[in-house]
Design goal:
single chain, about 300 residues, alpha+beta, 9-stranded antiparallel beta sheet, two-stranded antiparallel ribbon, 13 strands
């Protein structure tokens, strides 16, 4: 895809860089599911406190949900490429960047090839414009870029994203985690080929961990100053909101079902305002019953 084609994606109705910062409060809930498993045991993430276990969802997990939605939609009949793609071939960030540079047209006509590649990179990938990127250009990637006449002063490229999801989203109440037994319907071993012999090894048994119910709270921020550096557009912001809301609803898998977005509140600041009123979660009171089973119990 050329830089010109990439521009068509982000220029649906407004080519202006985003000029207004925002504070956001986002609530979602999960019922009998594992919204974010621990990497070691795949038990739902939690933080132990005196009041009980508080459920957690990392910003990385929420970001994956947003990217998965963006990758599957089209704008002006064009797909939205994402740079951090879990289903793409396994490459280091530097190798992926160098591979992208090799496909950029008109690079030989540019005086500042490094800047042209960096600009084209941000124009193409919506997740870079939203969340930023840290690209380490190691020796293999450096050689590819040098052959194109592209030389960066440092061996890394860092763009801080204007959209910050936060380190963790947490439940507003203690959660109850339980272990659910599961059984597969496939044979765990091949039969021995004797028709009169009973196969006692059909199926396998296992277990999974789920949260009975959890109301999770996130407080993302959008910074207009950083938006100017990654060239995040107003249309990008609208797509982010859509992906945040719809991505939670459409992320269907064995562990991600029964999750719903419940509330999106945004405070938009006038252009040029640098201060913030603080975390929007500080202005909300939650009064859950013991072991809530639905949002109306809170």
């Amino acid at each position: 895809m050329t830089a010109q084609e990439a521009k068509k994606i982000s220029n649906k109705s407004n080519n202006d860089v985003l000029r207004h910062s925002s504070d956001i409060l986002f609530l979602m809930d999960a019922v009998m599911t594992n919204p974010n498993g621990d990497p070691f045991e795949n038990i739902p993430r939690r933080c132990r406190t005196e009041k009980g276990d508080i459920g957690e969802i990392t910003g990385v997990c929420l970001g994956q949900t947003i990217r998965a939605y963006l990758k599957d939609i089209k704008v002006n009949n064009l797909s939205l490429p994402v740079f951090v793609d879990r289903e793409a071939e396994v490459l280091s960030s530097g190798e992926a960047f160098a591979k992208f540079a090799e496909k950029v047209n008109e690079i030989e006509k540019q005086e500042d090839k490094a800047q042209f590649i960096a600009d084209s990179f941000m124009e193409k990938f919506i997740d870079v414009r939203l969340f930023g990127a840290l690209i380490t250009i190691q020796e293999k990637a450096q050689e590819k870029l040098k052959r194109l006449g592209v030389v960066f002063k440092q061996n890394s490229i860092q763009r801080t994203g204007p959209v910050q999801l936060g380190t963790l989203g947490a439940t507003v109440h203690p959660i109850v985690i339980q272990k659910v037994p599961i059984t597969s319907t496939f044979r765990s071993k091949e039969t021995k080929g004797k028709p009169d012999e009973k196969d006692t090894e059909q199926g396998t048994r296992g277990e999974k961990w789920v949260v009975n119910y959890g109301l999770y709270q996130f407080t993302p921020v959008i910074d207009a100053t950083l938006a100017a550096k990654t060239r995040m557009k107003t249309t990008d912001k609208n797509l982010f909101v859509e992906a945040l809301w719809c991505g939670v609803k459409t992320r269907i898998s064995g562990s991600k079902t029964n999750q719903l977005p419940l509330l999106y509140v945004e405070v938009v600041y006038k252009e040029g305002i640098k201060g913030r009123i603080g975390r929007l979660s500080d202005f909300v009171d939650y009064k859950p019953v013991k072991e809530p089973q639905k949002v109306s119990d809170i």
